[in-house]
Amino acid sequence: MTQTTFTRGLKAYTVGLLTLIYTANYVDRQIVAILLEAIKTDLQLSDTQLGMLTGLAFGIFYATLGIPIAYLADRLSRKKIIIASLTLFSLMTYACGLAQNYLQLLLARIGVGVGEAGTSPPSHAMIADMYAPSDRATPLAVFALGINIGLFVAFIAGGWIADNYGWRTAIQIIALPGFLLAIIAWFTLKDPPRGMSDEGDTASAPPLMVTIKYMWQTPSMRQLLIGSTLIIIVGYGAVAWLPSYFIRVHGMTATQVGTILALMIGFGGAIGTTMGGIIADRMGKKDVRWNMWLVGIVGIVAAPFSVMGYLAPTGTVALLWLIVPTMVGAFYFGPTLAMLHTLVKPEMRSLASAILLFINNIFGLGIGPLSVGIMSDALAPAYGTRSLGIALALIVMIGIWGSIHYLLAGRSIGRDIAAAHIA
Taking a C-beta distance cutoff of 8 angstroms, is the pair 143, 127 a contact? Predict the structure, then answer.
Protein backbone atom coordinates (compact mmCIF):
# COMPACT_ATOMS: atom_id res chain seq x y z
CA MET A 1 0.00 0.00 0.00
CA THR A 2 1.39 3.38 -0.99
CA GLN A 3 1.63 6.41 1.21
CA THR A 4 -0.96 8.33 -0.83
CA THR A 5 -3.55 5.67 0.03
CA PHE A 6 -3.62 6.99 3.58
CA THR A 7 -5.89 9.97 3.19
CA ARG A 8 -6.91 12.12 6.14
CA GLY A 9 -10.16 10.15 6.39
CA LEU A 10 -8.41 6.78 6.36
CA LYS A 11 -6.01 7.93 9.06
CA ALA A 12 -8.93 9.04 11.22
CA TYR A 13 -10.77 5.76 10.62
CA THR A 14 -7.66 3.74 11.51
CA VAL A 15 -7.14 5.68 14.74
CA GLY A 16 -10.85 5.29 15.54
CA LEU A 17 -10.87 1.53 14.99
CA LEU A 18 -7.67 1.03 16.97
CA THR A 19 -9.22 3.12 19.76
CA LEU A 20 -12.28 0.86 19.83
CA ILE A 21 -10.02 -2.19 20.01
CA TYR A 22 -8.11 -0.58 22.87
CA THR A 23 -11.47 0.15 24.51
CA ALA A 24 -12.35 -3.55 24.35
CA ASN A 25 -8.90 -4.28 25.74
CA TYR A 26 -9.49 -2.00 28.70
CA VAL A 27 -13.06 -3.14 29.33
CA ASP A 28 -11.95 -6.76 29.53
CA ARG A 29 -8.95 -5.83 31.68
CA GLN A 30 -10.81 -3.65 34.20
CA ILE A 31 -14.25 -5.28 34.41
CA VAL A 32 -12.98 -7.22 37.42
CA ALA A 33 -12.47 -3.97 39.39
CA ILE A 34 -16.19 -3.22 39.71
CA LEU A 35 -16.83 -6.87 40.55
CA LEU A 36 -14.17 -7.34 43.24
CA GLU A 37 -16.50 -7.11 46.22
CA ALA A 38 -18.93 -9.60 44.65
CA ILE A 39 -16.07 -11.96 43.78
CA LYS A 40 -14.58 -11.53 47.27
CA THR A 41 -17.87 -12.52 48.89
CA ASP A 42 -18.67 -15.37 46.50
CA LEU A 43 -15.23 -17.02 46.54
CA GLN A 44 -14.24 -15.94 50.09
CA LEU A 45 -11.01 -14.18 49.11
CA SER A 46 -8.62 -11.80 50.87
CA ASP A 47 -7.61 -8.38 49.53
CA THR A 48 -4.16 -9.79 48.79
CA GLN A 49 -5.70 -12.50 46.60
CA LEU A 50 -7.83 -9.89 44.84
CA GLY A 51 -4.73 -7.74 44.29
CA MET A 52 -3.02 -10.73 42.71
CA LEU A 53 -6.06 -11.30 40.48
CA THR A 54 -6.24 -7.72 39.20
CA GLY A 55 -2.51 -7.05 39.18
CA LEU A 56 0.43 -9.40 39.32
CA ALA A 57 -1.05 -12.51 37.67
CA PHE A 58 -2.36 -10.46 34.76
CA GLY A 59 0.55 -8.03 34.59
CA ILE A 60 3.42 -10.52 34.40
CA PHE A 61 2.11 -12.22 31.28
CA TYR A 62 0.74 -9.03 29.74
CA ALA A 63 4.05 -7.25 30.12
CA THR A 64 6.43 -10.11 29.34
CA LEU A 65 4.74 -11.43 26.21
CA GLY A 66 4.37 -7.95 24.79
CA ILE A 67 8.08 -7.88 23.88
CA PRO A 68 8.27 -11.01 21.68
CA ILE A 69 4.93 -10.16 20.08
CA ALA A 70 6.13 -6.61 19.33
CA TYR A 71 9.39 -8.05 17.96
CA LEU A 72 7.25 -9.91 15.43
CA ALA A 73 5.09 -6.83 14.83
CA ASP A 74 8.15 -4.88 13.64
CA ARG A 75 8.67 -7.60 11.04
CA LEU A 76 5.26 -9.11 10.21
CA SER A 77 1.69 -7.92 9.67
CA ARG A 78 0.66 -5.70 12.58
CA LYS A 79 -2.98 -6.03 11.52
CA LYS A 80 -2.98 -9.83 11.87
CA ILE A 81 -1.22 -9.69 15.24
CA ILE A 82 -3.79 -7.21 16.58
CA ILE A 83 -6.73 -9.32 15.36
CA ALA A 84 -5.32 -12.56 16.79
CA SER A 85 -4.65 -10.90 20.14
CA LEU A 86 -8.11 -9.30 20.22
CA THR A 87 -9.79 -12.65 19.58
CA LEU A 88 -7.75 -14.40 22.27
CA PHE A 89 -8.34 -11.91 25.08
CA SER A 90 -12.07 -11.76 24.28
CA LEU A 91 -12.26 -15.54 24.50
CA MET A 92 -10.34 -15.66 27.78
CA THR A 93 -12.48 -12.87 29.27
CA TYR A 94 -15.55 -14.95 28.51
CA ALA A 95 -13.83 -17.88 30.23
CA CYS A 96 -13.45 -15.75 33.39
CA GLY A 97 -17.25 -15.77 33.64
CA LEU A 98 -17.23 -19.57 33.68
CA ALA A 99 -14.77 -19.83 36.61
CA GLN A 100 -16.07 -21.66 39.68
CA ASN A 101 -13.10 -21.11 42.00
CA TYR A 102 -10.12 -18.82 42.53
CA LEU A 103 -7.63 -20.96 40.60
CA GLN A 104 -9.84 -21.14 37.52
CA LEU A 105 -10.42 -17.39 37.62
CA LEU A 106 -6.72 -16.73 38.10
CA LEU A 107 -5.78 -18.88 35.11
CA ALA A 108 -8.42 -17.23 32.92
CA ARG A 109 -7.12 -13.79 33.92
CA ILE A 110 -3.63 -14.89 32.93
CA GLY A 111 -5.10 -15.82 29.56
CA VAL A 112 -6.57 -12.33 29.23
CA GLY A 113 -3.13 -10.89 29.90
CA VAL A 114 -1.57 -13.12 27.24
CA GLY A 115 -4.11 -11.95 24.65
CA GLU A 116 -3.93 -8.26 25.48
CA ALA A 117 -0.14 -8.26 25.19
CA GLY A 118 -0.36 -8.09 21.41
CA THR A 119 -2.67 -5.14 20.75
CA SER A 120 -1.11 -1.94 22.13
CA PRO A 121 2.50 -1.91 20.79
CA PRO A 122 1.49 -2.50 17.13
CA SER A 123 -1.31 0.07 17.50
CA HIS A 124 1.10 2.71 18.86
CA ALA A 125 3.50 2.07 16.00
CA MET A 126 0.78 2.27 13.34
CA ILE A 127 -0.47 5.62 14.65
CA ALA A 128 3.07 7.01 14.92
CA ASP A 129 3.74 5.94 11.32
CA MET A 130 0.71 7.89 10.08
CA TYR A 131 1.44 11.23 11.80
CA ALA A 132 4.42 13.58 11.83
CA PRO A 133 6.36 13.97 15.12
CA SER A 134 4.85 17.39 15.90
CA ASP A 135 1.29 16.05 15.51
CA ARG A 136 1.53 12.67 17.26
CA ALA A 137 0.42 13.52 20.79
CA THR A 138 -3.17 14.27 19.73
CA PRO A 139 -3.95 11.02 17.82
CA LEU A 140 -2.16 9.02 20.50
CA ALA A 141 -4.25 10.82 23.14
CA VAL A 142 -7.37 9.94 21.12
CA PHE A 143 -6.18 6.33 21.17
CA ALA A 144 -5.75 6.66 24.94
CA LEU A 145 -9.46 7.49 25.19
CA GLY A 146 -9.86 3.72 25.06
CA ILE A 147 -8.87 3.82 28.73
CA ASN A 148 -11.67 6.23 29.66
CA ILE A 149 -14.30 4.69 27.40
CA GLY A 150 -13.29 1.23 28.55
CA LEU A 151 -13.60 2.16 32.21
CA PHE A 152 -16.93 3.87 31.51
CA VAL A 153 -18.34 0.70 29.94
CA ALA A 154 -16.78 -1.63 32.49
CA PHE A 155 -18.03 0.35 35.47
CA ILE A 156 -21.51 1.36 34.35
CA ALA A 157 -22.46 -1.83 32.50
CA GLY A 158 -20.52 -4.18 34.77
CA GLY A 159 -21.99 -2.73 37.95
CA TRP A 160 -25.59 -2.85 36.72
CA ILE A 161 -25.34 -6.35 35.22
CA ALA A 162 -23.60 -7.67 38.33
CA ASP A 163 -26.24 -6.26 40.68
CA ASN A 164 -29.05 -7.75 38.60
CA TYR A 165 -27.61 -10.95 37.09
CA GLY A 166 -24.38 -11.73 38.94
CA TRP A 167 -20.69 -11.11 38.33
CA ARG A 168 -20.17 -14.09 36.04
CA THR A 169 -22.87 -12.93 33.61
CA ALA A 170 -21.41 -9.42 33.64
CA ILE A 171 -18.02 -10.68 32.50
CA GLN A 172 -19.48 -12.90 29.79
CA ILE A 173 -21.59 -10.11 28.27
CA ILE A 174 -18.70 -7.65 28.39
CA ALA A 175 -16.50 -10.05 26.39
CA LEU A 176 -18.79 -10.25 23.34
CA PRO A 177 -18.02 -6.95 21.51
CA GLY A 178 -14.39 -8.01 21.08
CA PHE A 179 -15.38 -10.78 18.66
CA LEU A 180 -17.34 -8.30 16.50
CA LEU A 181 -14.39 -5.88 16.42
CA ALA A 182 -12.10 -8.69 15.29
CA ILE A 183 -14.36 -9.30 12.26
CA ILE A 184 -14.53 -5.58 11.43
CA ALA A 185 -10.75 -5.23 11.73
CA TRP A 186 -10.16 -8.22 9.46
CA PHE A 187 -12.06 -6.59 6.60
CA THR A 188 -11.30 -2.88 7.11
CA LEU A 189 -8.11 -2.26 9.13
CA LYS A 190 -5.19 -1.03 7.00
CA ASP A 191 -1.55 -1.23 8.11
CA PRO A 192 0.45 1.90 7.10
CA PRO A 193 3.98 1.56 5.68
CA ARG A 194 6.61 1.69 8.41
CA GLY A 195 8.13 5.15 8.70
CA MET A 196 5.47 6.66 6.42
CA SER A 197 5.44 10.04 8.20
CA ASP A 198 9.19 10.22 8.85
CA GLU A 199 11.92 11.70 6.73
CA GLY A 200 14.42 9.33 5.18
CA ASP A 201 14.36 5.60 4.58
CA THR A 202 13.33 3.08 7.19
CA ALA A 203 15.94 0.44 8.01
CA SER A 204 15.23 -3.15 8.93
CA ALA A 205 14.04 -3.82 12.48
CA PRO A 206 16.96 -4.10 14.92
CA PRO A 207 17.51 -6.87 17.52
CA LEU A 208 15.96 -6.55 20.97
CA MET A 209 19.16 -5.65 22.82
CA VAL A 210 20.02 -2.93 20.29
CA THR A 211 16.64 -1.27 20.94
CA ILE A 212 16.99 -1.60 24.72
CA LYS A 213 20.50 -0.10 24.63
CA TYR A 214 19.37 2.72 22.37
CA MET A 215 16.50 3.60 24.71
CA TRP A 216 18.48 3.39 27.95
CA GLN A 217 21.39 5.48 26.62
CA THR A 218 19.01 8.34 25.85
CA PRO A 219 18.82 10.54 29.02
CA SER A 220 15.26 11.83 28.57
CA MET A 221 14.08 8.34 27.66
CA ARG A 222 15.43 6.99 30.95
CA GLN A 223 13.51 9.64 32.87
CA LEU A 224 10.38 8.95 30.82
CA LEU A 225 10.58 5.20 31.49
CA ILE A 226 11.02 5.67 35.24
CA GLY A 227 8.46 8.46 35.55
CA SER A 228 5.71 6.74 33.59
CA THR A 229 6.23 3.51 35.53
CA LEU A 230 5.88 5.23 38.90
CA ILE A 231 2.77 7.12 37.75
CA ILE A 232 1.15 3.99 36.37
CA ILE A 233 1.69 2.13 39.67
CA VAL A 234 -0.60 4.71 41.28
CA GLY A 235 -3.05 4.63 38.37
CA TYR A 236 -3.51 0.88 38.29
CA GLY A 237 -3.77 0.74 42.07
CA ALA A 238 -6.51 3.37 42.04
CA VAL A 239 -8.51 1.90 39.16
CA ALA A 240 -8.41 -1.58 40.67
CA TRP A 241 -9.55 -0.50 44.13
CA LEU A 242 -11.69 2.64 43.74
CA PRO A 243 -14.95 0.69 43.30
CA SER A 244 -14.21 -1.43 46.38
CA TYR A 245 -13.29 1.72 48.31
CA PHE A 246 -16.70 3.31 47.73
CA ILE A 247 -18.60 0.05 48.24
CA ARG A 248 -16.75 -1.02 51.37
CA VAL A 249 -15.91 2.29 53.04
CA HIS A 250 -18.89 4.42 52.03
CA GLY A 251 -21.61 1.77 51.61
CA MET A 252 -22.50 2.32 47.95
CA THR A 253 -23.87 -0.37 45.65
CA ALA A 254 -22.00 -1.62 42.59
CA THR A 255 -24.54 0.13 40.35
CA GLN A 256 -24.11 3.46 42.17
CA VAL A 257 -20.34 3.26 42.11
CA GLY A 258 -20.26 2.09 38.52
CA THR A 259 -22.43 4.97 37.35
CA ILE A 260 -20.53 7.64 39.29
CA LEU A 261 -17.05 6.43 38.36
CA ALA A 262 -18.10 5.88 34.76
CA LEU A 263 -19.08 9.56 34.55
CA MET A 264 -15.99 10.80 36.40
CA ILE A 265 -13.38 8.64 34.69
CA GLY A 266 -15.26 8.06 31.45
CA PHE A 267 -16.41 11.57 30.57
CA GLY A 268 -14.19 13.62 32.86
CA GLY A 269 -11.14 11.50 32.18
CA ALA A 270 -11.78 11.62 28.44
CA ILE A 271 -11.59 15.41 28.58
CA GLY A 272 -8.33 15.33 30.52
CA THR A 273 -6.77 12.67 28.27
CA THR A 274 -7.69 14.50 25.07
CA MET A 275 -6.52 17.85 26.41
CA GLY A 276 -3.22 16.26 27.39
CA GLY A 277 -2.53 15.46 23.76
CA ILE A 278 -3.85 18.72 22.32
CA ILE A 279 -2.05 20.99 24.81
CA ALA A 280 1.19 19.01 24.48
CA ASP A 281 1.11 19.31 20.68
CA ARG A 282 0.41 23.05 20.78
CA MET A 283 2.91 23.95 23.49
CA GLY A 284 5.41 21.39 22.23
CA LYS A 285 5.59 23.14 18.88
CA LYS A 286 6.91 26.20 20.72
CA ASP A 287 9.15 24.28 23.11
CA VAL A 288 9.32 20.48 22.98
CA ARG A 289 10.14 20.37 26.70
CA TRP A 290 6.50 21.16 27.51
CA ASN A 291 5.60 17.59 26.51
CA MET A 292 7.35 16.45 29.68
CA TRP A 293 6.86 19.48 31.91
CA LEU A 294 3.08 19.37 31.51
CA VAL A 295 2.89 15.79 32.74
CA GLY A 296 5.08 16.52 35.75
CA ILE A 297 3.21 19.66 36.78
CA VAL A 298 -0.24 18.08 36.42
CA GLY A 299 0.82 15.03 38.44
CA ILE A 300 2.15 17.08 41.35
CA VAL A 301 -0.91 19.37 41.42
CA ALA A 302 -3.37 16.44 41.37
CA ALA A 303 -1.71 14.39 44.14
CA PRO A 304 -3.11 16.30 47.17
CA PHE A 305 -6.64 16.01 45.74
CA SER A 306 -6.23 12.22 45.64
CA VAL A 307 -5.04 12.01 49.25
CA MET A 308 -7.93 14.14 50.51
CA GLY A 309 -10.39 12.03 48.54
CA TYR A 310 -9.18 8.73 49.97
CA LEU A 311 -9.25 10.07 53.54
CA ALA A 312 -12.60 11.88 53.22
CA PRO A 313 -15.24 11.21 55.91
CA THR A 314 -18.15 10.70 53.50
CA GLY A 315 -18.65 9.35 49.99
CA THR A 316 -19.87 12.70 48.67
CA VAL A 317 -16.82 14.57 49.94
CA ALA A 318 -14.55 11.85 48.55
CA LEU A 319 -16.12 12.14 45.11
CA LEU A 320 -15.71 15.91 45.07
CA TRP A 321 -12.01 15.69 45.92
CA LEU A 322 -11.43 12.96 43.33
CA ILE A 323 -12.88 14.90 40.38
CA VAL A 324 -9.49 16.41 39.50
CA PRO A 325 -7.39 13.21 39.80
CA THR A 326 -9.86 11.14 37.77
CA MET A 327 -9.91 13.78 35.03
CA VAL A 328 -6.13 13.87 34.64
CA GLY A 329 -5.38 10.24 35.40
CA ALA A 330 -4.37 9.46 31.79
CA PHE A 331 -3.14 12.98 30.94
CA TYR A 332 0.40 11.60 30.60
CA PHE A 333 -0.50 9.05 27.92
CA GLY A 334 -0.48 11.14 24.73
CA PRO A 335 2.67 13.18 25.47
CA THR A 336 4.52 10.11 26.73
CA LEU A 337 3.87 7.99 23.65
CA ALA A 338 4.45 10.91 21.31
CA MET A 339 7.90 11.50 22.77
CA LEU A 340 8.69 7.79 22.89
CA HIS A 341 8.02 7.39 19.17
CA THR A 342 9.85 10.61 18.34
CA LEU A 343 12.94 9.55 20.28
CA VAL A 344 13.25 6.08 18.69
CA LYS A 345 13.75 4.99 15.08
CA PRO A 346 10.67 4.10 12.98
CA GLU A 347 11.86 0.51 12.58
CA MET A 348 11.88 -0.09 16.34
CA ARG A 349 8.56 1.51 17.26
CA SER A 350 6.50 -1.58 18.10
CA LEU A 351 9.36 -3.01 20.13
CA ALA A 352 10.00 0.31 21.90
CA SER A 353 6.31 0.48 22.88
CA ALA A 354 6.46 -3.09 24.17
CA ILE A 355 9.55 -2.30 26.24
CA LEU A 356 7.85 0.76 27.72
CA LEU A 357 4.71 -1.27 28.44
CA PHE A 358 6.78 -4.12 29.88
CA ILE A 359 8.47 -1.83 32.39
CA ASN A 360 5.24 0.08 33.11
CA ASN A 361 3.10 -2.99 33.59
CA ILE A 362 5.49 -5.38 35.29
CA PHE A 363 5.67 -2.78 38.06
CA GLY A 364 2.38 -0.92 37.53
CA LEU A 365 0.09 -3.91 37.26
CA GLY A 366 2.37 -6.10 39.33
CA ILE A 367 2.93 -3.72 42.24
CA GLY A 368 0.00 -1.26 42.13
CA PRO A 369 -3.12 -3.34 42.91
CA LEU A 370 -1.21 -5.94 44.93
CA SER A 371 0.56 -3.42 47.17
CA VAL A 372 -2.73 -1.67 47.93
CA GLY A 373 -4.27 -5.03 48.84
CA ILE A 374 -1.34 -5.98 51.08
CA MET A 375 -1.36 -2.60 52.86
CA SER A 376 -5.12 -2.78 53.28
CA ASP A 377 -4.91 -6.22 54.91
CA ALA A 378 -2.05 -5.06 57.17
CA LEU A 379 -3.89 -1.90 58.28
CA ALA A 380 -7.30 -3.56 58.71
CA PRO A 381 -6.81 -4.69 62.36
CA ALA A 382 -6.18 -1.08 63.40
CA TYR A 383 -8.40 0.87 60.99
CA GLY A 384 -11.11 -1.57 59.91
CA THR A 385 -12.77 -0.86 56.57
CA ARG A 386 -11.01 2.51 56.29
CA SER A 387 -7.71 0.69 55.84
CA LEU A 388 -8.36 0.55 52.09
CA GLY A 389 -8.61 4.35 51.82
CA ILE A 390 -5.41 4.80 53.81
CA ALA A 391 -3.60 2.31 51.57
CA LEU A 392 -4.74 4.21 48.47
CA ALA A 393 -3.59 7.52 49.99
CA LEU A 394 -0.15 6.12 50.78
CA ILE A 395 0.47 4.93 47.22
CA VAL A 396 -0.16 8.45 45.86
CA MET A 397 3.31 9.42 47.13
CA ILE A 398 4.82 7.24 44.39
CA GLY A 399 3.04 9.34 41.78
CA ILE A 400 4.71 12.54 43.02
CA TRP A 401 8.07 10.81 42.65
CA GLY A 402 7.17 9.87 39.07
CA SER A 403 6.13 13.43 38.22
CA ILE A 404 9.55 14.71 39.25
CA HIS A 405 11.16 12.40 36.66
CA TYR A 406 9.04 14.01 33.93
CA LEU A 407 10.31 17.43 34.98
CA LEU A 408 13.86 16.08 34.77
CA ALA A 409 13.17 14.58 31.33
CA GLY A 410 12.39 18.04 30.00
CA ARG A 411 15.99 19.15 30.56
CA SER A 412 17.47 16.97 27.79
CA ILE A 413 14.61 15.99 25.51
CA GLY A 414 15.35 18.66 22.89
CA ARG A 415 18.96 17.52 22.52
CA ASP A 416 17.92 13.85 22.49
CA ILE A 417 15.38 14.35 19.71
CA ALA A 418 17.94 16.23 17.62
CA ALA A 419 20.46 13.44 18.15
CA ALA A 420 17.90 10.79 17.19
CA HIS A 421 17.13 12.53 13.89
CA ILE A 422 20.81 12.99 13.03
CA ALA A 423 21.87 9.42 13.88
Answer: yes
